[in-house]
Amino acid sequence: MTRRKAPMPLLDDSGAALQSRPVRKRDPAQPSLPFDPMPARIEPCLALLKPAPPKGPDWLFELKWDGYRLAVHIEPKRVRIITRGGHDWTHRFPGIAEAAKTLGVSTAILDGEAVVLDEEGRSDFGALQRSLSGRGGKRSSSEAILYAFDLLYLDGHDFTGTELSVRRHLLADLISPTSDGSIRLSQEIAVDGETLLEHACQAGLEGIIAKHRDRPYRSGRTGDWLKIKCIQSESFMVVGYEQSASARGGIGSLLLAARKGYDWAYVGSVGTGFKVKDADYLRKTLDKLKTARPVVPLKGKNLVFAQPTLIAEIEFRGWTHDGSLRHASYKGLREVQDNAAVFDIADRPSGL
C-alpha cells in the first residue's frame, strides 16, 4: 500500500502554518454517568449550505472533506461501518475497521468522512470512487482513511445530548491529533471562518465546515452545522447522454436534472471531468436504463434518454440566466447506499 501524503498545511500571511487548538488535558474528576444502551444507528447531523461563514466565538471551524460520510460502530466483538443511508460497508473499508479495533475502547460510535488523499494531501472524491471500483463496484478500498469529527457514544455513555465542545474534547482524547493512520482527527483550526475559508480556497480545497460549540448532536439539517464552499458541488440526476462518435466512450456529455417538487427540471449537461473508463461504464449503464419517454422536455437526434437512476456529483461555477449549470465538471457517481440528496431546484439562487 502506498502511503499518501499528509494534508497540505494552510499558511497565514506571515507564512506560518495555521494550527489547531491545543488539546486540553482530560479532567480526572469525571461525573458518574448512567449506562446508556448503544444505538443500532444514529441519523447523521447534516451541514446547511451558507454563502459565508458565521462570526463569533460560538463557532468552531474545520476543513470540509470530500468523500463518504460514515459512522464507525465499535462493539465488544466486532466493528461495523455504516453509510449515511444505513448500509453496512465494513467490508469495503478494511483499513478503517482494523484501525478502529486498536483505539482501546470497548464501545464507541465515531462520526466522520472516508476519503482518499491526492499527492498534495487533499481529499479527492474521484480517487475514492476509483479505489472502490466505481459506482456499484464490489472492491474494498485499501487507500481510504477516516477523518473523524465527532464522538456520539463511548464506553456505555450516549453523548448525543452533550454539547459539541465536550464531544470534541473526548474525541481528541481518543484519537491523537498527530495520528497518520487509517483513522485521523479532523482538527478544529484556531482561526476565524473568513480566514480559514480564504486559505482553504487558495489551497484548492472544497471549503470549510462551521459547527456551533454548545449544541447537542441533532439529526438532519438543523443549522447547528454549516458548510461554506470554495467551489459549488452538488448531486444531480443523470437523465441521459448526448452521443458522440469522437468522444471517449461515445459520450459527448451527460444530461442532468434537479428535483422540482415531485418532478424533474433540466439543468444542462456536463462534458468534462470523466475519463475513458468512466465514459465506458456510463455508456453501458445508461444504455441499460434507456427509455423512449424522457423525464425532461428535450429533443435531439443524438440524445439518448435514461430512467432517473444514476446520481452524479457535479462541480460547477454558478448558474446561467436560463437556469443551467455554468462550467460544470463531472466528479463521479454517488452510491445508492450513500443516500446523497439530489439538488432541489428551489435551492437555486433567486433571480434565475
* Residues in helices, as a percent range: 10-25%
CATH superfamily of the largest domain: DNA ligase/mRNA capping enzyme
Poorly predicted runs of 5 or more residues? 26-31
**Backbone structural class:** alpha+beta
Q: What is the multimeric organization of the chains shown?
A: single chain
The CATH topology assignment of the largest domain is D-amino Acid Aminotransferase, Chain A, domain 1
Strand content: 25-35%
Tally of extended strands? 18
What is the general shape? globular
CATH architecture of the largest domain: 2-Layer Sandwich
Mean pLDDT, all residues: 88
CATH class of the largest domain: Alpha Beta
Supply the number of structural domains.
3
Largest sheet: 6 strands, mixed
Distance between the termini: 48 Å
Rounded to an integer, what's the Rg over CA atoms?
21 Å
Number of helices: 5
- The helix-strand sequence is EEEEHEHEEHEHEEEEEHEEEEE
Pfam families: DNA_ligase_A_C, DNA_ligase_A_M
Domain ATP-dependent DNA ligase family profile: 137-229
Catalytic activity: ATP + (deoxyribonucleotide)n-3'-hydroxyl + 5'-phospho-(deoxyribonucleotide)m = (deoxyribonucleotide)n+m + AMP + diphosphate
Enzyme class: ligase
